[in-house]
Design a protein that fits this description.
mainly beta; four-stranded antiparallel β-sheet; single chain; Jelly Rolls
Protein backbone atom coordinates (compact mmCIF):
# COMPACT_ATOMS: atom_id res chain seq x y z
CA UNK A 1 0.00 0.00 0.00
CA UNK A 2 1.22 3.48 -0.76
CA UNK A 3 -0.06 6.96 -0.03
CA UNK A 4 -0.78 9.48 -2.77
CA UNK A 5 1.46 12.52 -2.92
CA UNK A 6 -0.69 15.64 -2.63
CA UNK A 7 -0.48 19.23 -3.79
CA UNK A 8 -2.88 22.13 -3.42
CA UNK A 9 -2.95 25.17 -5.69
CA UNK A 10 -5.19 28.22 -5.25
CA UNK A 11 -5.65 31.36 -7.33
CA UNK A 12 -7.62 34.52 -6.51
CA UNK A 13 -9.97 35.34 -9.39
CA UNK A 14 -9.54 39.09 -8.84
CA UNK A 15 -5.95 38.71 -10.14
CA UNK A 16 -7.04 37.10 -13.44
CA UNK A 17 -6.02 38.72 -16.71
CA UNK A 18 -6.17 37.80 -20.39
CA UNK A 19 -2.58 36.45 -20.18
CA UNK A 20 -1.61 33.13 -18.63
CA UNK A 21 -0.20 33.32 -15.09
CA UNK A 22 1.43 30.60 -12.98
CA UNK A 23 -0.77 28.83 -10.45
CA UNK A 24 1.72 28.25 -7.66
CA UNK A 25 4.90 26.20 -7.77
CA UNK A 26 5.93 23.35 -10.04
CA UNK A 27 4.10 20.07 -9.39
CA UNK A 28 7.03 17.77 -8.69
CA UNK A 29 5.23 14.42 -9.19
CA UNK A 30 3.16 12.87 -12.00
CA UNK A 31 -0.53 13.62 -11.34
CA UNK A 32 -2.97 10.69 -11.42
CA UNK A 33 -6.05 12.51 -10.11
CA UNK A 34 -7.04 16.16 -10.13
CA UNK A 35 -10.07 18.15 -9.00
CA UNK A 36 -10.64 21.72 -10.19
CA UNK A 37 -13.13 23.84 -8.24
CA UNK A 38 -14.00 27.30 -9.50
CA UNK A 39 -15.83 29.21 -6.75
CA UNK A 40 -15.51 32.44 -8.72
CA UNK A 41 -18.07 34.26 -10.85
CA UNK A 42 -16.01 33.98 -14.07
CA UNK A 43 -15.00 31.13 -16.41
CA UNK A 44 -11.27 30.31 -16.54
CA UNK A 45 -8.87 28.46 -18.82
CA UNK A 46 -6.16 26.27 -17.29
CA UNK A 47 -3.21 24.91 -19.26
CA UNK A 48 -0.34 22.54 -18.56
CA UNK A 49 1.60 24.22 -21.41
CA UNK A 50 1.54 21.14 -23.66
CA UNK A 51 0.06 20.94 -27.13
CA UNK A 52 -3.17 19.60 -25.62
CA UNK A 53 -6.15 21.92 -25.47
CA UNK A 54 -6.83 23.89 -22.27
CA UNK A 55 -9.36 23.02 -19.60
CA UNK A 56 -12.24 25.51 -19.33
CA UNK A 57 -13.77 25.57 -15.87
CA UNK A 58 -17.06 27.49 -15.79
CA UNK A 59 -17.92 29.93 -13.01
CA UNK A 60 -19.15 27.93 -10.04
CA UNK A 61 -18.12 24.70 -11.79
CA UNK A 62 -16.00 21.68 -10.94
CA UNK A 63 -14.05 19.13 -12.94
CA UNK A 64 -12.59 15.89 -11.57
CA UNK A 65 -10.31 13.65 -13.62
CA UNK A 66 -8.60 10.41 -12.75
CA UNK A 67 -11.16 7.76 -11.93
CA UNK A 68 -10.80 4.66 -14.09
CA UNK A 69 -7.19 5.26 -15.12
CA UNK A 70 -5.98 2.12 -13.34
CA UNK A 71 -5.17 -1.35 -14.64
CA UNK A 72 -6.06 -4.66 -12.92
CA UNK A 73 -3.23 -4.54 -10.37
CA UNK A 74 -4.25 -1.08 -9.16
CA UNK A 75 -1.36 0.87 -10.63
CA UNK A 76 -1.92 3.83 -12.89
CA UNK A 77 -1.60 3.38 -16.61
CA UNK A 78 -1.80 7.10 -17.45
CA UNK A 79 -1.02 10.46 -15.91
CA UNK A 80 -2.99 13.67 -16.26
CA UNK A 81 0.06 15.90 -15.83
CA UNK A 82 3.71 14.85 -15.95
CA UNK A 83 6.17 15.59 -13.15
CA UNK A 84 7.61 19.11 -13.07
CA UNK A 85 4.54 20.74 -14.62
CA UNK A 86 3.51 24.31 -13.85
CA UNK A 87 -0.18 24.98 -14.39
CA UNK A 88 -1.19 28.37 -15.76
CA UNK A 89 -4.53 30.19 -15.69
CA UNK A 90 -6.24 33.04 -17.51
CA UNK A 91 -9.71 34.55 -17.61
CA UNK A 92 -12.20 33.47 -20.23
CA UNK A 93 -14.18 36.70 -20.04
CA UNK A 94 -13.02 39.06 -17.24
CA UNK A 95 -11.49 39.11 -13.77
CA UNK A 96 -13.88 38.07 -11.05
CA UNK A 97 -14.36 37.40 -7.38
CA UNK A 98 -13.80 34.07 -5.65
CA UNK A 99 -11.10 31.42 -5.95
CA UNK A 100 -9.94 28.62 -8.16
CA UNK A 101 -8.88 25.60 -6.09
CA UNK A 102 -6.96 22.63 -7.50
CA UNK A 103 -6.34 19.38 -5.64
CA UNK A 104 -3.67 17.15 -7.23
CA UNK A 105 -2.86 13.55 -6.33
CA UNK A 106 -0.07 11.38 -7.67
Amino acid sequence: MSIYKRALREFDASALTGAYQDIGNIIEFPVQKVAFTNTSDVDVYITDQTTNEDFRIPAGGTLSIGEGLFNNNGSSTKFIFSANTTLKIKQATASGTGNIIIHLLG
